[in-house]
Design goal:
1 helix
């Protein structure tokens, strides 16, 4: 799949970043993501790595976090939150922001670094059974970038009108074969 670029929400505040790009590859029931955020990284609040093995944690979107949304067919979808700390979350929805439950998935493999003008996050995700065998999958990619003063900017492949909403069907702007 080609390199995908995220754009900041048009109504958002100034951002310390100049861009975010993502490489995506689907290998069977595995999804591999490589996010690269460039800019004034010293102005980004990058969560520190957790000392223990990566753990599931809610509310990662309140800080710097990279996300993937996957949908097959109509209605339901799965959301993955991936933090540079190594923490993660996965949720399954029955419909637009409806019926959220923790998705039954294996912990993703996450590697992250923040050096110079670059934050990189690589993640390998085993897709949940509910979508693993489906082709094609609609894909939404996004990021929440928190600055060192607590402000947030919201990045996505495509933004729906109005406030940032990564769950909106408009945000599922790419397709995985």
């Amino acid at each position: 799949m080609p390199l995908l670029r995220l754009a900041p929400h048009p109504d958002g505040p100034p951002t310390p970043l100049t861009g975010i790009e993502v490489e995506v590859e689907r290998v069977g029931a595995r999804l591999e993501l490589h996010f690269r955020a460039r800019g004034r990284i010293e102005d980004v609040a990058v969560p520190a790595p957790v000392p223990q093995a990566a753990q599931r944690r809610d509310d990662l979107w309140k800080h710097t976090c990279f996300e993937a949304f996957l949908a097959a067919g109509e209605g339901g979808y799965v959301e993955f939150n991936l933090s540079p700390s190594g923490e993660w979350a996965a949720y399954q929805f029955n419909g637009y922001r409806e019926g959220a439950t923790n998705a039954a998935v294996a912990p993703p493999e996450i590697r992250a670094s923040a050096l110079g003008e670059l934050i990189e996050l690589q993640a390998a995700i085993e897709l949940p059974e509910v979508i693993a065998s489906m082709h094609p999958l609609r894909l939404g990619l996004s990021a929440v970038i928190e600055d060192v003063h607590g402000g947030r900017t919201y990045w996505a492949l495509a933004h729906a009108p109005g406030k940032p909403d990564f769950h909106h069907a408009h945000a599922f702007a790419s397709e995985l074969p």
